[in-house]
Structures are given as C-alpha cells and as structure tokens.
Amino acid sequence: MANYTGSCLCGAIKYEVNGEPVRTAVCHCDDCRKATGSSYATNFFFKEEDIVVTQGTPKEFQHKSDAGNTMTKQFCGNCGSQLFGIGTGSPGVKHVKAGTLDNVGDLKPAISVFTARKHPFTVLDPDIEQFETMRPQ
C-alpha cells in the first residue's frame, strides 16, 4: 500500500495518504484554474478514509461545479494553499492537489478533462485520454 505525505506552503497543515488513488486527472475547468491560480489543476483522488490531516485544520469554501455538484475546497487559512477537494458527485472520495504532495512517486494523471477550456498555450499530454468536458460516468 502506498504512503504519501504532503503539506501547505507554510507548513501549518500536514497530511498523510495511505492508499492508492482511485482516479488521477488534470482539469482545465474555470473553477480549477481560479482555485489554483494556475492554468490547470492536477488532482489525485483517494478514498476519504485514506487521507489523514496530521497537523492543523484546513478552512473550507463551497461552490457549485459546472455539473451542478457542491464542491468543497479545503485550504490553509494562513498561506492559502489549496490542499483537498470534495464533491457531492463522488461520495467517499477526496482529491489531493498534486503540488502539495512531498513526493508523487510513480503517480501520474490518467485523463485530462475540460480540455475545451484550456489556455491556448497549454500543451496537452498525448499519452493520456482527453475529454472536452467532464469524463462520462
């Protein structure tokens, strides 16, 4: 079983993940771009019970996704690093922002979603499956 650690930029919040991801993805949607302040978000999805916050308490912000789900972003209230996301469309699953992991090991995205919204300068990886909108269920 894999074991990963991670933290926010200032180190006030630390976490551990004990398990393998159930899904890995790059997302180019407007919400992910704005929430991360980057051109896209790389998300590794794990079972919620596999993620344990070992230090600090993330703050939360909720919004509606393009699919109509309620999304909860969990972030450090001190430095603003977004750490996790929870969506009502995927009960029992929580995503980890790849940039907060101390070591991603062999993890890599399997799909790229909302590619129709990518920035023109963003190069897509031809080796992963791509969807113009959300991946079909």
Give a concise summary.
This protein has 137 residues and is mainly beta. The protein has one helix at residues 30-36, and strands at residues 3-7, 14-18, 23-27, 41-47, 51-55, 59-64, 70-75, 82-87, 93-97, 111-113, 129-130. The strands form 2 sheets. It has an 8-stranded mixed β-sheet. Strands 1-2-5 form a 3-stranded antiparallel β-sheet, with no helix packed on it.
Can you give a write-up of this model?
The protein has a single domain, classed as Beta Complex (Metal Binding Protein, Guanine Nucleotide Exchange Factor, Chain A), CATH 2.170.150. Helices cover 5% and strands 40% of the residues. The protein has one helix and eleven strands. The protein has an eight-stranded mixed β-sheet. A hairpin with a 5-residue loop joins strand 8 (82-87) and strand 9 (93-97).
